[in-house]
Every structure is written in structure tokens, then in C-alpha cells.
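Take the subject:
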Amino acid sequence: QVQLVESGGGLVQAGGSLRISCAASGRTISDYAMGWFRQTTGKEREFVAAISWSSSLYYADSVKGRFSISRDNAKNTVYLHMNSLEPEDTAVYYCAARRLRWAGVSRNEYDYWGQGTQVTVSS
């Protein structure tokens, strides 16, 4: 069993940057693919970024070139670095772990989820 805890969310102005973190416990995530998803009220949870066990990277078109996912296996932690933030990026951001090495882009492919962290971008 893996527990995931996100942190680092908050309020930022448009054009600003933010880094959110996902700390895992219960077992190592070094052989798991990890992903970030986001959700706003009334909408489905959507894929943002993912990283495989070997650090292959995947991004949604809406964040490509602005967001960067990374992992630190020694700290059992995954990060999402967000630059050039836009009001449309406002959402609750969720970290997810997949019990496979290869990343997926669908929320149904992930087995463990964190509780989410709110990111609000003001215009």
C-alpha cells in the first residue's frame, strides 16, 4: 500500500511559478510510474503529466513547455514544476501512483491517489 501526500499549492499571480510536491510512504515508488492530474468543480479529473520509472516524460498539450515533472527516488517524492501559470491552470492537483513501470495518461490506469492540493492562479 502506498500513501501519497501533496503539498506546495497556493495562490499565485498569472505568469508566476509554483512547485508542488508529492511525498510517498509505505513502500518505495522507484519502480512505479507517477502522474499528476487536476480537477475543477464540475469537470472530470484530467491528465497533466506523468513520469515512468526510468524518467520518460509525458505531458498534456495544455501544459507542454510550461510544466515539468520530476522525481527524486532517494526522497520518495515527485514534483511538478509549473511556470507561466495561467488562470486556466486553477484546479485541485492530485498525485497518483501506478503499480507498473510505464506511465499512463488515463486516471483509470493509476492505483493510488493523494488528497490533492489547491492551486489558484489570479489574473
Observations:
- The mean pLDDT is 97.
- The chain is about 0% helix and 50% strand.
- The first strand starts at residue 3 and ends at 7.
